[in-house]
């Protein structure tokens, strides 16, 4: 699981152009939106694409995204449970 | 009659890997540096904290830097400062990246972060957010820089009271070429905002 969270952190930094951050700056439980990493709605779409492209997971219910994208850890948990 | 009741308050030129504000050099980097490295160096030299900059495409980044420097040179903009921009290639940088994304035969998936910049007027939105402008804005596509159109257009907006000042000019940014000339026109300043003066400023023949 730790390998997956590290992989997700690297992907998020690259895909979302978070150039000021390194993998070590991101905590598994830091909120991705709001007061945490401060991601926006376009970033949310980018995360949905990342799930689809990188792990073959399509979010059937957009509302599901709120829980899935809460933290790096919740994303990793969701991927582990659903990846094909 | 060659009236010139309006004046240039500040102007910025980004061209050939150099940046000049009011005719004075601000930054110059190696001509071989990739566009994004050059613009990133300029952003870091500004010493501001605006992480969204990194997410912008090349067109937005160049415009962002030019407007930021002009804000420092001629003070914060009134929130009715209008934006009248123009270029030739529209948002071609992002358009071509998006086209590449969706034509990937193995995995044709659009990237929202790229797609969102596939309109040139997005750059004006970014500037409006950054400088809290609640104003008129328009982005023209021309074959080349056209002060014969831009100057009278800006004067008409100012005459009609649509804005207290205007940021206007030419913002051509492609993978190979960055040619940005933006100026802040209003009531104050020393250089009259005439077609002739705006041609000379664009060509780098006149200083404030």
TrEMBL record, chain A:
Pfam families: PP-binding. It comes from the Bacteria. InterPro entries: ACP-like_sf, PP-bd_ACP. Residues 2-83 form the Carrier domain. Transmembrane segments: none annotated. NCBIfam families: PRK09184.1. This is Acyl carrier protein. It comes from Parapedobacter luteus.
From TrEMBL, chain B:
It comes from the Bacteria. This is Beta-ketoacyl synthase, N-terminal domain. The lineage of its organism: Bacteria, Pseudomonadati, Bacteroidota, Sphingobacteriia, Sphingobacteriales.
């Amino acid at each position: 699981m730790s390998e997956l969270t590290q992989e997700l952190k690297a992907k998020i930094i690259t895909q979302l152009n978070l150039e000021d951050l390194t993998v070590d700056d991101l905590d598994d439980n830091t909120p991705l939106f709001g007061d945490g990493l401060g991601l926006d709605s376009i970033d949310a779409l980018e995360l949905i694409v990342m799930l689809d492209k990188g792990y073959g997971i399509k979010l059937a219910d957009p509302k599901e995204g709120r829980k899935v994208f809460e933290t790096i850890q919740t994303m990793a948990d969701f991927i582990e449970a659903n990846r094909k | 009659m060659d009236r010139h009741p309006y004046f240039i308050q500040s102007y910025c030129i980004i061209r050939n890997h150099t940046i000049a504000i009011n005719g004075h050099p601000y930054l110059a980097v190696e001509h071989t540096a990739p566009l994004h490295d050059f613009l990133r160096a300029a952003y870091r030299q500004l010493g501001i904290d605006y992480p969204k900059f990194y997410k912008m495409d090349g067109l937005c980044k160049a415009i962002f830097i030019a407007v930021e420097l002009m804000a420092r040179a001629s003070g914060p903009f009134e929130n009715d400062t209008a934006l009248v921009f123009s270029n030739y290639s529209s948002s071609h940088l992002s358009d071509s990246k998006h086209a590449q994304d969706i034509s990937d035969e193995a995995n044709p998936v659009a990237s929202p972060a790229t797609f969102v910049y596939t309109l040139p007027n997005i750059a004006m939105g970014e500037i409006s957010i950054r400088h809290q402008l609640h104003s008129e804005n328009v982005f023209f596509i021309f074959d080349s820089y056209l002060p014969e159109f831009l100057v009278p257009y800006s004067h008409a907006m100012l005459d009609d009271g649509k804005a207290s000042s205007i940021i206007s000019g030419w913002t051509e940014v492609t993978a190979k070429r960055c040619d940005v000339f933006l100026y802040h026109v209003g009531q104050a300043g020393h250089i009259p905002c005439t077609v002739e003066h705006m041609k000379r400023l664009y060509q780098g023949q006149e200083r404030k």
